[in-house]
Design goal:
The structure is a homodimer of 359-residue chains.
Chain A lengths: L2 E4 L1 H14 L4 H16 L10 H9 L10 E6 L2 E5 L5 H19 L1 E9 L5 H6 L6 E7 L20 E5 L7 E5 L6 H10 L8 E2 L5 E2 L10 E2 L10 H17 L27 E9 L6 H16 L15 H13 L1 E4 H14 L4
Parallel strand pairs in A: 3-4
Antiparallel strand pairs in A: 1-12, 2-3, 4-11, 5-6, 5-11, 6-7, 8-9, 8-10
Chain lengths: 359, 359
Amino acid sequence: MSEAVFSFDHLDRFSKNIFQKMGCPVEHTNLAAESLLRADLRGVDSHGVARLSGYVRLWKAQRINSKPTIRIVHESPSTAVVDGDAGLGLVVAPQAMEIAIAKAKLAGTGWVAVKNSNHFGIAGHHAMMALPHDMIGMAMTNASPLVAPTFSVERLLGTNPIAVAIPAGKQPPFVADFATTTAANGKLEILQRKEKEAPLGWIQKKDGTPSSNPNELKDGGALIPLGSDREHGSHKGFCLGAWVDIFSAVLSGANYGPWVPPFVAFLNPPTDPVGQGIGHFFGAMRIDAFRPADEFKKHMDQWIERFRSAQTVAGEEKLIIPGDPEREFESERKKKGIPLNKKVVADLKELAQEFKIDF
Amino acid sequence: MSEAVFSFDHLDRFSKNIFQKMGCPVEHTNLAAESLLRADLRGVDSHGVARLSGYVRLWKAQRINSKPTIRIVHESPSTAVVDGDAGLGLVVAPQAMEIAIAKAKLAGTGWVAVKNSNHFGIAGHHAMMALPHDMIGMAMTNASPLVAPTFSVERLLGTNPIAVAIPAGKQPPFVADFATTTAANGKLEILQRKEKEAPLGWIQKKDGTPSSNPNELKDGGALIPLGSDREHGSHKGFCLGAWVDIFSAVLSGANYGPWVPPFVAFLNPPTDPVGQGIGHFFGAMRIDAFRPADEFKKHMDQWIERFRSAQTVAGEEKLIIPGDPEREFESERKKKGIPLNKKVVADLKELAQEFKIDF
């Protein structure tokens, strides 16, 4: 798939224009573009501007409210539940994370469950908001049901990612951000474009038997929880996905499990909702609520240095610290621009034409 | 391996006698026996009375202090760091969890990092302490390094389990409790006893190549993070294990990574410690810090009922809700007793003889 390269500024300006055309107030426009572009910068191409037209279609279908009143509906010293008012998850999430950070300043930690939201981009971006405050950040979200729990043929969970961002001293922060499935849906999309087969253990057929067809989900197949099969611990991946679902939605009052509304506008949400919109869960923990931050950072440096210098298996250069590859992408793409594949470029051009703006 | 069956009361009394002989005060004796026996009841045979002689050997080696002064060394409204004073993890952990619960009563949530502790038994037991308080409980711990991160041949992490216990209404609680490796070490021990091979993806040889030999760890091999290999997401299992290690030890001031002292008394702890003892991390979240508990429980019931009734793959009776198998074990073994294999019985008899008590 041939690619064209665009500067960060170009795509940032374009995304802001689109969010503005959707009617987002300017503060929301900035937050949304920042969340969205962070995915492109960090190499998570499936969650960046490639999704812009998807958000627009949900807005047209009146499933995204571009002028939400995002508010706390319940709270304690260290917790809050936020109603996203059907806003863009790209806006609701950073606002909820700010509340978690504010709670942590006073109570040591802050934990915010969110209902009535939409797809929030990459979890890692929100978790990383805690870092400049010398806090550990956490972010998780439920998502459209595409995953069959161990022993099941039904798609009951989303790829439900978890992100944990932990500050260090001289070393860059530790940033884990991963789907709780063997492979994220974005990995399948790459194989579909390249017309390649998927490894066994990523996908199952409609009847639950193994499949290597990356298009299997279109025929009723499902993604598999991290672990691939029971013998290799897929029940643990199911535990992780279930945990994210319950924290994000049962705690907040959002839809959970198979009731989570689909991201794609051409599929209607279930007619018997059990809550409002999709759910997220955020956490912020002040380091010095546990020990002095400089002491902690000194040990995080030592942790990272020890692991990074570990002896590797033959043929592998180094052990990868969570966050390393994405940080390298970010630094490279800020300088050299963001490559987009032909299909995404065509998609953005169509949006430009529709909204009568330049691309 | 032939087995004999013992009543809960018999093993409970025996364990209490042993802890008493070690010099534990009576409150600690009760807490320790409760933590230990819970593993046997719940079918986690590797973590119950089978480990009793291991604790005794560590105490003899002066690595376990039977009369610890367990105290808070740092705190905020929602957090604390606890120094376990080299006590039995079986005692330190429930005391730390009580602190998390007390914090949650006032601040909505409570988060306790523990240093200077020892092996704490099963994580699920401690997490479940939150349930009667209408709280969600979490427990994690680091452990002796047996696990090689993705791309590495070095054993840098323990099997670092995570437990999450979530109350429901009419349904029994959701209780996930799992090692962050493809298979827990206890699974290898079962294969060793049965002289069976392990599935590929559980273990690697000293040079990092795949192995099916359950004794491979004795030759410098390593357990593998959940996911089995890079293509199937072992880097995500590594993220999980690393997260547990950092929360348990870098936040608290315990030893982390390859510096975690070994559980077995015949291996000495590293001579260049980076902290004190092993580390744990506990959390308690009051349900009504998010939404009314009865509302939450109604939805948890619906979540559990929907998942439990999901359509299964051919040949599988039902989808397993986390906590179901352990609860069934617990109810069965309370009634019919706890089966112990011959080697464990011999071990306990030896302890009885040594301490001049009945078995």
